[in-house]
Amino acid sequence: MFSVESQGAVDVVRAAGPLTHENAHELSDTIFGGLPGGQPMVVLDMHEIPLVDSAGLEALLDVQQAVQSMGGSMKLATLSPLCQEILRITEVEQHVEAYHDVKTAVGSFVK
After folding, report:
1. 10, 21, 37, 96: which has the highest count of C-beta atoms within 10 A?
2. CA torsion, ordered 79, 81, 87, 90, to nearest 10 deg
């Protein structure tokens, strides 16, 4: 479900299908399995994620917290309108930055 590609020092994680209890653990396995040492910079491209359930939300927050504890950051990109609404209603959007496209999310690490 997840794949990782590097864009400079930023790891872009692409996903396909809903982020649910059935596969939420794969998110952290994918991200932490491929991280180099140092401060992780991760963009999760959610273009092909139509839905996030409570386990998926928990996984997003857990990964964000773990990445931050390592001195890095995870940002989201290309959320569907439904996923944007889910993150807004659950207030997860207050803990993870979201961008309209991957290029802008990757570029935000340069600031």
Report:
1. 10
2. -170
Spell 44-71 as b/e; 16+ CB within 10 A means b. Answer: bbbeebeebeebbbebbeebbebbeeee
CATH code of the domain occupying 2-110: 3.30.750.24
Domain-wise residue ranges, the chain:
2-110
DSSP 8-state symbol, 71: T
> Rounded to an integer, what distance in angstroms lies between the CA atom of residue 96 and that of residue 59?
12
Q: Tens digits of per-residue pLDDT, 25-54?
A: 999 888 888 666 667 899 999 999 999 999
Residue 19 gets which letter from DSSP?
A: B
Q: How many CB atoms lie within 10 A of CB 7?
A: 15
